[in-house]
Amino acid sequence: MTADTDLFITHLRAALGDACLPNRTICIALSGGMDSMVLLHALVLLQKVTPFSLFALHVNHGISPNAAHWAEFCQQRCTDLNVPCEVATLPPLTAAGTGLERAAREGRYALFAAANADVLCMAHHQNDRAETLLLNLCRGAGLQGLAAMPGSRFINGKRLIRPFIDLPRSELLAWAKAQNLRWIEDESNQNMHYRRNYMRHVVLPAIREQFPGVTAVLARTAVQMQEQSKLLARLADADAQTCQDEVGHLLASKLALLPPEARLNVLKHRLNGLGVHIPAARRLEALAEQLVNARADAAVFVRFGKTGCHVWRDKLWLDDGMALDLPEASGLQVGEMTWPDGRLIVEPVTEPIDAQALVVRAVGQGQRFQPAGRCRGVLSELLREQGVPAWVRPRLPSLWVRGELVWVAGMGWSEDAGINNRVPLTWIPQAERVL
Predict the structure, then answer these.
(1) Do residue 312 and residue 349 come from a single domain?
(2) What pLDDT shows up at residue 60?
(3) Residues 211 and 288 in one domain
(4) How far is C-alpha 324 from the geometric centre of its chain's CA atoms?
(5) Structural contact between residues 164 and 172, judged by C-beta atoms closer than 8 angstroms
(6) Does position 2 have pLDDT exceeding 80, yes or no?
(7) Does any domain span residue 97?
(8) CB atoms < 10 A from the CB of 425, how many?
(9) DSSP designation for 433
(10) Domain boundary among 267, 296, 319
């Protein structure tokens, strides 16, 4: 491909496929750099012959002193092109070095995933794919990591498309110059402290001296890894059929009977499918090993970043609330309170609530409780009988009247709670996540 506009737009249209139909809305991730400005202008040209909805989303990371200028630049260019532009600002990022890179990327993708669009469009190209493969290889990534930037995938129910993923950066640059485009240069792109920059400016140029076509070769390798990854996913689905219950949940006891490599493959596939990030292969290996070697009554738990995985009642449960803070004890107020495992709703009542007398807090450990119409017992055991996982029980909200426990989420009111003390409380638990 050359700087020829017709060929360029034809490639873009083919890459987008049905994404550019008249009833679709495309959101372009606009950084203001050369790549994204090429994509913006190309989409505007395509929009003239294929009328779809288009808007841009610029993320202000707040890292560079020029961040505000970049946001203004993107907004102005979008105004010139009659494209709506939203600017979203990330909260302060505190990580350093490569941790800062990752924190910025995760924050950026979270904003893109929440965009009100059918399709997300990003300007990554062949060079980006090659760099990502090498970076992940140096980090010890497995097959999925080496697959490096698929041309299309789904994020939060939206299709994310990288229409330039098969084009080298040189072709985008040639088209940008032919179109007399303007763009911004991020000064951090020259900072060798960031590993991607080091890979881009030092490692790959050194490799190209001996292997001039290495960028395209690495990109092709990434595509091959994607194909192999899809085959492993099919194998994982087939193996999972042999060790799951009637509703499709994995049974730990049957999973433990699989060959080690098959067990790891099934676990990785299920965790990925539920959006759980696996920070290191050793975490997955630890979970697989515990499934085989732990006693039947042992507590099996492995942490994957902010999510924990427990084995309980022969199933593997995800704990998304483990890293969340519990609300502090407070007087009961009308409204809604968010808890790690659900929502507590307090409806309005005709009589005013005595916030000093009624206190809501996490129930904690060791409480005794007598649900209405039942025998008194240790609350944790009562909750266990109702199928509440052990790690959730102490986090549940409870209501106390002058130091006396009178209501527990999932259990209801106590036998001793007088009708005059009752207020309309509704506990809406989060959907359980089971592998």
Answers:
(1) no
(2) 84
(3) no
(4) 16
(5) yes
(6) no
(7) yes
(8) 17
(9) -
(10) 319
Residues 130 and 213 sit within 8 Å (Cβ to Cβ): no
Q: Model confidence over 235-274: pLDDT tens digits?
A: 999 999 999 999 999 999 999 999 999 999 999 999 988 8
Identify whether 229 is part of a domain. Answer: no
Q: Which of 262, 288, 319 is the last residue of a domain?
A: 319
Q: What is the mean pLDDT of residues 358-380?
A: 85
Q: Roughly how many angstroms between the first and final C-alpha of the chain, as a whole number?
A: 46
Q: What is the largest CA-CA distance in the chain?
A: 84
Q: How distant is the alpha carbon of residue 97 from its chain centre?
A: 21
Region for residue 271 given its phi and psi (left: phi exceeds 0; alpha: psi -120 to 50; beta: otherwise): alpha
Which two three-digit tokens encode residue 114?
Answer: 């929440």
Q: Is 70 exposed, middle or buried (0-12, 13-18, 19+ CB in 10 A)?
A: buried
* Claim to verify: residue 251 and residue 138 sit in the same structural domain: no
Q: Can you say how many angstroms the Cα of residue 91 is from the centroid of all Cα atoms in its chain?
A: 17
- Residue 118 · residue 26 · CB < 8 Å: yes
Domain that holds residue 269: 244-319
Q: Taking the model in full, what pTM does it have?
A: 0.78
Under 8 Å between Cβ of 64 and 187? yes
In tens, the pLDDT along 398-420 reads 988 888 888 899 888 888 776 55
Tokens linked to 66: 């020029």
